[in-house]
UniProtKB/TrEMBL annotation:
One of its GO terms (molecular function) is nucleoside diphosphate kinase activity. Its main location: other. This is Nucleoside diphosphate kinase-like domain. ATP binds at K10, F58, R86, T92, R106, N116. The chain holds residues 31 to 177 of 181 of the full protein. Keywords: ATP-binding, Cell projection, Hydrolase, Kinase, Nucleotide-binding, Signal, Transferase. The keyword Signal applies. It comes from Arabidopsis suecica.
């Protein structure tokens, strides 16, 4: 059955003008782009999104990188969307991806283990959390508190 995952074109992908090429690959691979949002992450948002990595030595660099420019956040839908998107983007380390997965998106536009151009949810539970993180539906209660 249909499944959804959260995909993101990171700042290096957007500033490197890879957005259209990546979206073409996404659609040709059979994904439906059901939501998209171009946004600039601030420190607080990037830190919350990557909370699970907060104890890692690279965390401060990760937050600096992810706040360095706009990102394109997308909700992708297809059968097996989570694992199929992970397969399409390739390994975390783009340098290794260029050798082991030369047709992957990270081989196309990533640079190394940090500047790896794109994000993909690593499980269906992560996908659910990450989709809610960026696309929390505005309900009547939210509207009331905004006024
Ligand atoms: P991703 O796997 O999408 O989510 C965690 C991110 O942290 C990862 O992409 C990289 O951008 C970054 N990252 C992971 N490992 C390292 C590392 N060893 N050094 C720097 N950044 C990293």
């Amino acid at each position: 059955s249909e499944e959804r995952t959260l995909a993101m074109i990171k700042p290096d992908g957007v500033s490197g003008n890879y957005t259209e090429e990546i979206k073409t690959i996404v659609v040709e691979a059979g994904f439906n782009i059901v939501k998209e949002m171009l946004t600039q992450l601030d420190k607080e948002t990037a830190s919350a999104f990557y909370e699970e990595h907060s104890s890692r030595s690279f965390f401060p660099h990760l937050v600096t990188y992810m706040t360095s420019g706009p990102v394109l956040v997308m909700v992708l839908e297809k059968r097996n969307a989570v694992s199929d998107w992970r397969d399409l983007i390739g390994p975390t380390d783009a340098e290794k991806a260029k050798i082991s997965h030369p047709h992957s998106i990270r081989a196309l536009c990533g640079k190394n283990s940090q500047k790896n151009c794109v994000h993909g949810s690593d499980s269906t539970s992560s996908a659910e959390r990450e989709i809610k993180f960026f696309f929390k539906d505005v309900v009547s209660g939210d509207i009331a508190t905004q006024q």
